[in-house]
Structures
1.
Amino acid sequence: MTPPPDRDGRILHGFSNNEDAVLVKAPPAGLALVQTVDILGPIGNDARLFGQTAAANALSDVYAMGGRPWSVMNIAAFPSPTAESDTPLSILADILSGAMEKVAEAGAVLAGGHTLDDDLIKFGLSVTGVIDPALAARNDGLCPGDVLILTKPLGTGILATALKAKWPGSGEGESEMYRWTTRLNAHASEVIRATRLKAATDITGFGLGGHVLEMAEGSGVSVELETASLPFMPQVEEFASCGLIPAGTYRNRDYCSCRTTVAEGADELRATLAFDAQTSGGLLLAVPAGRVQEACERLAALGEPAFRVGRVLPLREKKERLVLA
Amino acid sequence: MLIDTRGLSCPQPVLMVYPHLSGTDPVDVLVDNTTSQENVSRAAAKNGWKVEAKEEGDGIVRLELRR
């Protein structure tokens, strides 16, 4: 494993001489810390790309606030080599290598980590980011009239299920899934800062519907998602219509159902897929109507997709906290 | 034909039922969770089958798949 470069000497005293803790330089005055931790079980069949995915997924929580990753710590669970264990240690090395590639891309440094012996592989990062607290985008900052823009297509839960089923075509689905899950949300974060957006989140385990509902409740508003406009990765709708929908997706939908109205005429499958549990999904940006063009131009200039998926409404009755139109 | 998927989780029930959807003989499927029920129903409907769900008690549902 090659640790990410420490170009500006952020690590003041490292762990090379068996130190149990690491001395990290504080960020410049006036900036606040943004801290998070996220750990995943394996997704797909490629250890290095799983490592990249888990790292991108953990870093994403910092990006969703408009922050910049500063330092990270690895957290890994792995079966220790024994006569019974058939998991070679090279798998752990590949996971770590993949993760460090993404940490380097994010411009953060490695401040250590911890591995524990466990039958099931898990990997993730604890991430410390820096942010100007006045510019932090929040979960509870939605305003009626805001347009909701998503920066990655949906469907990692479905593609992972198809892969588990070894369904015909799932191999191509795996490549497509990794193409998105390993992608950092760094550019979208840059747009949060440049456009001074007040509200954003990243789309992960609760699915687009679940995360939007959380934002709506925190902000005291309702939200409408246009099912016809939801972007899906290739093959997702086909696999889903064959019944390859994971339990987590149904759980998300059912958990949100008493606060969700599905409009007449909305496609039932798409309304269910709005809750597909995502791994390392995109950012959902809430953009005031007058700045939508500016935000989309900034995203396009950075090579980032901008899918317009819905809008924020004034508060409606409880059952219409989330409307799937 | 009776397929018992009780105790199994997604995507196993769909994988057990799918090969029988290319035929025409009636298929009954026992499921014990909503994920299996919805996924098996979707798979059947996609292949042109009609699905009727009958509660068997104790959270078990019999899905009657008819061509």
Note: The two ends of chain B are 13 Å apart (CA to CA).
2.
Amino acid sequence: MSTAYNPARLNAEELHQVKQLMGALMALLSFWSLASLDVGSAPFILIGMVVAITALVFPGGCARIAPKTWKYAVPCILLFITVDFTLSLPEFVPPLVRTVVLLIIYRVLAPRNQREDLQMILICLFCLVISGALTVSLLFAVQILLFTSLAMALLFIICLLDRGKDSKAYVIQWADFRWSKLVKRVWRVIDLRVGLLSVLLFGLVVGISSLLFVLIPRFDLNQAIPFLEMSTQARSGFNDEVSLGDVSEIQQDESVALRIDLPSREALDGEMYWRMLVLDEYRNGRFRASESLRTRPFREFAEKRSLESKRRSGAERAGALWTIYMEGGVSRYLPIPGDYAAVRFEKFQSVELIDAVHVVGLDSVDQSVFSYQVEGLSFNRRFVASEADQLLLVEDGETVANDDFSSYPMTTLELAIEANSIAVLRAINEGLGMQPGLDAAAYSQAVTDYLWQRFSYSLSPNGGQAGEPDPIISWLKNGSQGHCELFAGAFVLLAREAGYPARMVVGFAGGSWNPVEAYFLVRNREAHAWVEIFDASQGNWLRVDPTPGRGSSDPERILEQIMPIESGWFAWVDSLRIQWYRRVVNFEQEDQVEIAIGLRDGLRNFSDRVKTRMDEFWESWKAFVVSPFEWSHARWVVGTLLVLALAYGLWLLRFSLLNLLFLLTGRRKALDPVRLKAARHLRRARLAGADALLILELQSIRYGPPRSMKLATPVFRQARQAVKRRMRVNPE
Amino acid sequence: MKDSSVIPAPRVLETVERLRANIEQTIRGKTEAVDRTIICLIAGGHLLIEDLPGLGKTTLAYCLARSIDCSFSRIQFTSDMLPSDIIGVSIYDQKTRDFEFKRGPIFANVVLADEINRTTPKTQSSLLEVMGRGKLSVDGQTYTVPPPFMVIATQNPVDYEGTFPLPESQMDRFLMRMEMGYPDFENELDILKNGQLHYDDMDSVPVVSKKEVVELQAYVREVYIENTVAEYIVRLVAATRKEKAFRSGVSPRGTLSLKVAAQAHALSAGRAFVLPDDVRSVLHPVFVHRLALRKSMSDPLEERRAVEGLLAEIEARVVEPA
């Protein structure tokens, strides 16, 4: 069989080619990581990706760019960066990302030597860390692993090339470059043992990191890197104050807002109203949480790991566990659809509890994913009136004489609009032709029916007129189509006019099921606004959704709804994310401690077992030494001899075994071990300037007729000694 | 011991050194040329010397012949020469009433074919046939030239008016091609003081027997060539075939020639195995005359230089075994 000789190394040209291509790969990796950042520099990143892919596919093309270009490129980039930063301050992450992208593009295209390669690695690492810290997703782990291996290989190549003196300004000839050829060469050149070793090392590093992950306490990344916190824009979704149209704006957003692990798919009872915030006050055309709700005594501040419900007794507390993962920047209010036994957080958390309206908020909008668990959750159609709401019960049926509308719950009856606007509302209420004293549910159905007849649903409402002081009244008078906020707002105003306390509720309605990992997800576009009306007869707040297209107009009737199912590529990718959330983000301290203890105990058990074994061994060994020829020790003797024989045999056969390994892996070496060793010694002896006779001897082993290892070994020993001697005389 | 080959390396080295020293007594300062001649001799190949007249080509050949105690003949090629002038001719013998073969000058151990390109292709080819096979047939009778047999042909690369350049296929028959070159100042001074104008006046004595030469030639075949070195040779050959500037690459005969020349080089250094260095040091003399440029140049000397340049590039490009 003729095997082409396998030159043991890549030459400088090939090494440079590999280095250049790996640089482009690394650039691609960092663009990928930046792309998952979502900071509005997508076109830039796209251009960068195209450039990197081009540099990978046609590496020769980049080399053809005139060197003069690079001289002018640097000032241009500097100018762009300065202008970009000046224009977009105080936002500084988007221009930073653009800067990084530009720099990487420049580095990919321009020729690089050592210094530039190191810069490249650094910039890419920066990209990865930034995006990893901001997104906290499973992809980050994949990216950092890829990066590590790439960077290690790149650094290795840089070290290799560093040996040559003329590596400073090497110009790569891409003339006869082909990917297939290079890959084939690299594959042939890579030493299996070295490859195996590096895989082992890599595995070891990953293993150790995982162990550290288990053992080291979590810290808050946002607190550790404070500047990241101010950087990303919050989706100004559900704040204390909502102008008309705000919710509809969120409805344009396709990204995922919530992911929910539920006890079972059946636990969702088909309504799926993810209630977040209650807006009780309507002034100047906007709904907001009234000042009273935003301060004590309604709002309690606490630093807690769990919130126990005051309304449920201990026996009721137990229940299935829901885990909700809220994406960063969605809101500081937690979507909790109804009553619960307890809400638990990963760690002590500053929370704001507005128990009167069943709202739980954080002290600030979290920029990375926030997860919490709810125990014994139920979807409420009716919320039991709180202590504060008793005020409404007393007043019910009478004309409200209390003029102090500034404080909850009176805010739910306030109509801070002009008199002729109230007249419009009154006209509509009278047009419904209802008897006085109708209960809230019946009234709701009548108003909803009226709204559905007159208006249709659309994200672009009409009816707004310049002269009108109030947008909702204007819509009621002139409009024909509107969005959920207008429906809900109109309902609230009408109800208040008719004497029913009513408040607007915002959150998400709907969602879909991801069957890949069996969880529920809600997108930002499912943001919704609806109404809660106070039902004095039952003493609770009744949920009413006056927007058409979501069930029946009768708030008491539940329609069966079909849950949408996620499918395809997106479902799969998104399931990766929830896996990451479940296993990493939501990694609880208890679990951590448990695993750590488990590990420790396992280790201790193991060492104990080893120790006892050793003791036994020692004892029997002693017994054997004392009386070696007793029959009961025959097992020992035979065993020891066998082991020794086996070891000796393996030692003798080590070269044949090595050859066998090469043969089995299809990488038959051109050289047998003796020649290989001789070649190595020859190289060293030549470098050390050993005497001619020794070199001739080594040459005859390397190039002469085959010799056995036994015969060659003395020469090798001699060579080793000679080299050592030389090194001592002339250590360089 | 299995690895010790049949070659008694020290004795071989001593023999070669003896020969070399003897030739160098006369041919001053031309170590490389002498070495190559000896390599050619022990490899059993033929040598083509391309150089100007008066540089000592004939002297070298004569010296070689005398040093190895061999017969020497010189054929001056002219355009009116016939094959029989070289090979010999059958003459009718009146006494025996039979044709008797009169052997020509080719029947010698060392044959100097001076200005081989001056004669017609017909005559050239008759010489080359003998060179190739080591035997010749005349009138149905086969004659073997006595071993050792070595043809040293010369060509004048400058004065090529009215010549018949050897076709490449014929060039292939020569194991090596080389140039003599001018002697340097010291050596020329030495030649001035001691040299004779005519080689007949020179007093070379045989230092190596004919038998020893034949023995050396047999040893060359035994010189061990390791697998990676053999592959190195093949890769060098393949590289010449891939090179676009050449009209054609080196033939398999060239491959064998390079191998045998490398073996001879190793042997002449007293080694029983071939090093990559051996291959490299005979690469140029073995390959240059086997390669021609695609765009031929008007000046043959210049063309040789271009070929040598390309060959040097190939030599640098092809990775030698570690």
Note: The radius of gyration of chain A is 37 Å.
3.
Amino acid sequence: MKAFIVDLSICNGCYCCQIGCKDEHVANDWTPYAKPQPDTGQFWIKVQETIRGSVPKVKMAYTPNMCLHCDDAKCMAQCKSGAIYRRPDGLIVIDPQKCTGCKLCPDTCPNGMIYFNEDLNISQKCTGCAHLIDDNWDVPRCVDSCPTGALKFGEESDFAEQIAKAEPLKANSCKGRVYYLNAPKDFVAGTIYDPVEKEVVIGAVCTLKDKAGDQTLTVETDNFGDFWFNDLPGEKREYSLTIEKSGKTQVIDTIDATNAVNLGDIPMKLV
Amino acid sequence: MSDTKGDKTVFRSLGLGGFYGGGAEGMVDVKDGKILRVRPFRFDYKYDRESIRTWKFEKNGKTLEPTWKSMPSPFSLAYKKRVYSPNRIKYPLIRVDWDPNGERNPQNRGKSKYRRISWDDVTTIIANEITRIHGKYGVNAILMQGDGHGECKTINTPHGQPGILLDHMGGFTLQVRNADSWEGWYWGAKHVWGQGVQGMYWPAHNIVKDSTEHSEMVLFWGCDPETTPWGFTGQFTSSLMYYWKDIGIKQVYICPDLNYGAAIHADKWIPVLPNTDAALQLAIAYIWITEGLYDKEYVETHVVGFDKFSDYVLGKVDGVVHTPEWASGKCGVPEWTIKALAREFARKVTSIAHYFGGGYIRGPWSHEPARLEICLLGMQGLGKPGVHQHQLSYFGMPRMEGLTGTSFWNPEIMERLALPVLSSVANWQESALPKTLVHKALANKSTEPLKFMGTGAIEGSVASQFKEHSFPLVTEPETRIRMMWTDTPCRTTCWNGGNETEEALRSPEVECILAQHPWLENDCLFADIILPANTHMEVEDIVTNIRQGGQFADVMLCHKAVEPVGESKSDFEIVLEVAKKLGYGEQVSEGATTEEIQKKVFEYMNLDKLTTWEEFSEKGYYLYSAAKDWESDPAGFSRFAENPEKSPLGTPSRKLEFYSERLAKHFPDDKERPPSPQWIEKSDMHDERLSSVRTKDYPLLLMSNHGRWRVHSQCDDITWTREAPTCKITGFDGYKYEPLWLHTSEAAKRGIKHGDVIKVFNERGIVLVGAYVTERLMPGVAYIDHGARIDPIIPGKVDRGGAINTISPDGITSENCVGQATSGYLVQVGKVLPEEWAEWRSENPAAFERTYDSAAGLRFDAWVINDREV
């Protein structure tokens, strides 16, 4: 069985996967695997950008989204014409010659990864470049185009270690042939400075307490006076932050960390 | 099973730097005479991995080695779309209202359309025009613009080919290319550390390994390693940055924008207002001097003029003490962060990284931040382990075995190869014009000649900056530019004073503008005659991927992939056609066949010592091994650092010159580039600071970097990249606008929403853009990539294409420096009013009636009458 591994910690957002897919499928006819993809508007692999935080504590995350080749493929189940099939290697393909253009599957896909081609009157999506795999190419074009190794493709059995660490992108995401690693987590960050001395405060002990639970996290400010609580869960949370330095204590009581939060430059008088 | 391989596979350098090759190697599969796909190059395609010795970096038990696959950028992988772009010029064109024997209507340049003409007829017209101009005005009345970046080719190299013919005919006026992506180093750094390579840190051997092993922190100062290397080597720097993170090197980004590198690699982002880095640098020096946080022993033995520099920093020269408090008011960085940065910089072994481009080194007075940066590095022992200035991976990658340094402007190689490239790096004609002053010359009706110090030629010596030139030459004061032969021009969108340039191109003084270009764009729209050039996919060639910092070095045969599109010819063939009409065919071609030239390049590279022609042509490429002893190459300035007497610099004092006696002698009254670097608030040339009275109307500082999705102006028509959210923004009218970044708070103040069609403007004109509202930019700034194709609504005044340089300063770097200043200037941003649309529509309805293609943008057929062929 084939599998894709997507390591989000080294996705640099270059879009080469998205472009490589188009180079392979736009204006090239790979019937019976796929008919040509329209020049624009379809993204069999689509890079999604997320900007988290605010100036100057901002991070970006890029996520390549694609057909997951689901184990429990709703598109296959609902297709009346038997055009959507799973190959022995696990890849799910829409047979462009059998598709009748009923337009049901694009709405059925929970990930929005099936497109409808009005000109050809067929549904289209990622084929895992099955036409290449069957002709002894080692990987699909998206994977070949990836400069950093963030995208990998191969036998599922060879990826056991990565798959063990994988987590679904969304809570209700189907399990399939695509495994995501190292999804970015939310953060609470800020800079502490002394408004009298006009100096950053180094080595302040910052304690973040989850108001709903009993979890506390502690970090010290670095040489820029910065503290970063990384890897926070991405669900709705309320925190309080306690800052301690040289016997002084300061508390920020209500932090809504539903998303990444930059608390900005926080004044703390030490004298 | 489908046949997926195609009929043949050929090799290309997919870089777009030009000059014979760079990197970003690729494989092109061809089927039925069409490009099937473009994919990364497999270096082991014809070589056993065991037969090639590779380099390896090691630190903390982690290693980085070359992958056996190239890492082209997205526009490289999408290059098929460039070849078959709807914007390709398919046959020769002549402007409908330009009559060489009658009315020439120069005022309609940029407005009128074109009609098809045959190669035979057009070359006859061109030959007659050249002969007429030479006879009536002299040879120097013809200006050749033939320089800059383009596709990687050798035999058919783009740019500069017309110079071969014009030189044979007695000479011409040469447009001299400036140091367009590294102005500050050229005009500033040379006066601190000597010539360098075009002003940049040199020697720089092995600094990538040295920083890997010794640097604790790297400052990406105005540097985006995820953008500017793309057009040259592809994405190797991306992997290097991930590796540096893995081995614990702190990556601090200092720039107004959370650029693409900062967005994923930064441990710390310090936003700084555009072109105010000099203030931040002076404050860092202030902290070091007052707290004793610098390498006093090194400064004592390796630096001259430290006392004068120090006096200025401490306020003993002009009364301004350059404290963090003072700097914070100029640069927008909090005082406490400036102090923290200064101390961290001193505490940790630190290098500074760049890869060309950006606002940092291309603003007004860019020589000042450049010089100050070197002074800072000098105060921390420049050249000591881990203390370097990186042109990140462009210089300093491991040395390759048997790779002989080859400058293709070497006079010993055939003229046909040397001369075109010479025009991008040197001033080799008696009559010359800096590229940054061309618009002034075209529009110059006065009897006074243009005077300038140095020509800005990128291979020019330090001393060349002290020589005064004039145009016209003093020996021929009547000469004016009467004809231009321009080769793939984009001066309007990539250089200073774009709108003034558009006006100048419409000057009646200029009787004929001849352009050659693969795509109908930018300055071509102001030409009278346009010739269709073809792309590297359509010619047989050879390229040397030996420069600019990739993982491997190689030389590859580039067999023709597909037949030329339409009636296009290579840049060389175009010139040859004209030369034949003038009786210069043999001189221009040197009678050499393509295969003979391929063999000559093989010999120039001394490949006969490493392989045989037969093996080379059978494999199709030669892959170099890393040199056996590359690890022992001294890193950067390490020898100078160890012993400045034995390994001196090329400055007059042989040391780092924090005060330049040479500048003091040649320019005693220069307030913009004084002998020791300073903060410049305002000058006769530029008034672009937040202290200016102009901020009443133009309160934002505009920054522009080289494009993420383009290489300068190249690749603006790729339908696939144009779908990326930071490439184009689709407006309410279906037009794809260039994104202008605004901080959330600045947009809110103006009632602007993400995706709105808005205008960015100043006294120099208006550019329409799409609002990109973001936390990736500090408040007080407007950010936009430069190089979008111009789409003039009102030529010289209003641009819809997003060509931001149309409203950039038309002045130069500073009075005595003919560089460009195209970032860090004042603008305002606002909504476009309905009455403005109405006014523009009534003033130039044709601009709104032109065929437009949302996916690809501007189209060839929009400018050609009776053309229904796409």
Note: The mean pLDDT of chain A is 95.
